Amino acid sequence: MLDKASGRLRRYASAEGDDLLHTLIDVQRRIDRPIMLVPQVFVWSQRPASLQPSAVDLVFGPREWPGTMRTAAQFLLNYRHVMLRAGEPMSLREFLDANAGESSETLVRRGTYALVRKIERERRAIVGPIRKPADRVREEIVRTPKLQATIKHLAGEGRAERLVLTARAHATLRELEASPDPETIRVLTTALDNLLNRLYASIEIDKEGIERVREAAQRGTIVLLPSHKSHMDYLLLSWLLHRHSLQLPLIAAGDNLSFFPIGGVLRRGGAFFIRRSFKGDRLYVAVVDAYLRRLLRDGWPIEFFLEGGRSRTGKLLPPKLGLLNMLVDSALGLPYREVLFVPVSIGYERVLEEGAYVRELLGGEKKKENTAGLIQSVGILAEHYGHLNVQFGEILPISKVAREAGVREGAAPTPAQRREVTRQVAYRVMASINAVTAATPGSVVALALLTHGSRGLPHPELVARVKRLVAVLHALGARMTASLATPSGAISPACVAEAVQMFRSAGLLEVHVAGEHLHGQKKRRRAPPASNDDLIYSVPENKRLALDISKNIILHYFVPAALVAAAVLAPPGPPIARSVVQQRVQRLSRLFKHEFIFRADMSFDQLFDTTVDEMIARGELVVVGGDHLGFGEGHDGIDGRAWIVQYASMVRSFLEAYRVAARTLPFLLRGPLPIKDLVRKALATGDRMYLAGEIERRESLSRSAIENAFLSLQDQGYLRPESDKKISLAETFADDDALHAIESRIAAYVTRRAEDRV
Q1: How far apart (Å, rounded) are the C-alpha atoms in residues 658 and 675?
Q2: Crossing angle, helix 282-298 and helix 159-176, to 10 degrees?
Q3: Average pLDDT over residues 196-200
Q4: Bond preceding residue 261 cis, omega within 30 of 0
Q5: Fewer CB atoms near the end CB (10 Å): N or C, the chain?
Q6: 296 neighbors 302 (Cβ within 8 angstroms)
C-alpha cells in the first residue's frame, strides 16, 4: 500500500480481502442485526518461528511466506497434525460504533489489523514467541541496565574487574538457560505417552481449565504454578499442554537435576536450572532476575514450583517466595504486558517416589539424584499407581492483585506493596490449588483405612465409610474424579475394589478372610471367597506412613471440621460452649501453622463460623442450651458422635507427632542442640512411646511433622534459635514442670476413651 506522506510503498497486511470487508461494512450499515467476524488460522507446526534463517528458509522461503515447494512439503509432513483455531469473534456493529466518523479506507485497515491481532494471539498461544539465537539473547540480557548496574557496583572502578564479572554473567547464563528443541520435545512426548499408559490406569484432565489457560495465554504471559509431589511433575504438565496444542513453558528446575544425561534432555525439553541456594551471591541473583525478566518480556510461558521442593507427605508445603518475588517484581515493571498466574493441582493416587519418601520421613537422608539412581529407578515400571489427574484453579492477573494491594495504575509500587502483591499471589495460589485438588478412589480409601479405630475393616464397612466421606466432599463442593464419583456424588461401583487392588499390589494393604489364621497357620483356600463381603482389610503397621501420603492429598478438605471435632472432644467433652470451642480451635490452628494451609479468602472467625454452621446443617453438631455445642443426629447412617470422632481421628497422627516433639524438649535442658539431632532424638522417643502404647498411630513418627512441630513451638516462644544453627529452650520454660505443661496441653486433644473409637 502507498504511504501518501512519504510516497513509499508500505506493506500493512494482505489487501486480498479488502473488497469483501468493504462490502460487509456497507451491509452492516444497512441492517440492525450484528455481523460477527470470526478470524481463523491454520497452524501447521508447533515449531516456533526463528529470527535466524536456516538454509531451508533461504532456498524454499520462510515458513511465514513459503514458496510452492515448501507449501507442498509442509502439507505432506503435517496434514495429520494441522490445527484450525478460531480467534475471538469481532462484532462489526460494535467496531463501527467505536470508529464512527472514519472513512471506509480507514475502517478496512483498522478492521484488518484487529482481525490479524486476534489471529496472532491464537498462533502465539500455540507456537510461542519468536526464537532468537542463544548468544544474542545472552548478550542482550547482560547489557540490561539493572544487571549492568549490579556489575558496576560489585566491580567498582576497575575495568578488569568488570570484564571478569561480565564473563561470569555470561557463564552463569549458559549454565542457567533453557534450550528448547522441538525434536527433543517430540521424542519426549512419544516416550511419555508410553510411560504414562504403563504406570497409570487413566489420566483425567480438567478440560474447562485447559481452555481457560488457552484464553489466558492469548491475553498475556502465563506463569504456571503446579503442586509438586513427584519428579513426574516436570514432564507431565508440558506433555499435557503439548497434547492440547499450547506453547510449552520454560520450567525452573533445581540444579540437582542437571546431571548427565538427564540434564541435557531436560534442558532441551524446556528446563532452566537454578541453584537451590544463592544467598549472598549478588551477581547470581541479578543474572537470574535479568533472565526471568527477559522471559516475561518476550512472552515465554514460565513454570515453577511455588513449594520449592517436592512434598514428601502428600500435603502442600508452605510457599517459598524467593523466585516468585523476582517474577512479581519483573511483572510489575512490565505494565504493557499482562502476566497471569495459573494454579495447577497435579493429583496422584500413589507417587513414584513413595519408598524414598517413607525412608526420608523416618529419618533417612535424601539421596542425591545421579545416573545410578536413574538406572535403579527402572523398577517403578513394574508397579501401578492408580489414576492421575490435572486440575486448574482460578487464574490470577498481576494487574488485579496489584490493584487490590493498593498499587495505582501507572504508579510505581512501593517496596511494601511489592511484598504484599507477592504474598497475595503466593497464598491465593496455594489456596486455589487446595480448592481444586480432586479426590480420587485411592485418596478416599486411604483416608477411610487410616482413620478407623479397629484392627481390621470389613469390605462392606469400607464401602460405607467411602460413601460417607464422598457425601461430605460433595457437600463441600470438592472436585472428584470420574473414577471416584458421578457428578451427583454417587460413588463409582468399582472404585473401592480398584483402590484396594492397587494398595494390595504395592504391599500397603493386607486382605484376610475370617478363619484363615486358625489352628496356628494360614489356612489354604481352594476357592476364592463367595463375595467381597467376606474380606477384611488391615494396614501393616510399617506401611501406614506410605498409605498416609495418599491420605494427605485430600486431608485439607476435612481439616477445619477435624480441628472443631478435636476441640469438642477434649475434656470435659460436649456439651461445650461455642466460644470455648472457638478458642481451642484457634490454638490448634496456630499450633498447626506450618502443617496446614488454610483458606486465604476468610478470616479465622469467618472460617470457624462457616465450618461449625456446616457441621450443624449436616446434623453432626447441634446447638443446646443456647450457645453450647453437642452431638447431632448425624447423617448417612451414623450419628453425630461418630462423625465428630471420625473427623478428630483425621488429625490424630499430627497431634501425636507434636506431643512426641514436646516430650523431646527435656533434652534441651542440658544445652542447645542442632535441630537435626533434636529431630533424631524425637523419632527415637516417639518409637518408645509407640511401643509403650502412649501413642497409637505409627504414621505419627514422621520427620516432616516433627520438624513442623519444633517450628511451631519456636513461634509460640517455647524455643529460640541460636546463632550456630542450634536450638535451645526459652529461659521461661527451662524446667521440667513447664515442659510437662507444654506436652499436657497438646495431649488434651488426643482422646483416649474406648467409646471414641469408630
Answers
A1: 15
A2: 60
A3: 90
A4: yes
A5: N
A6: yes
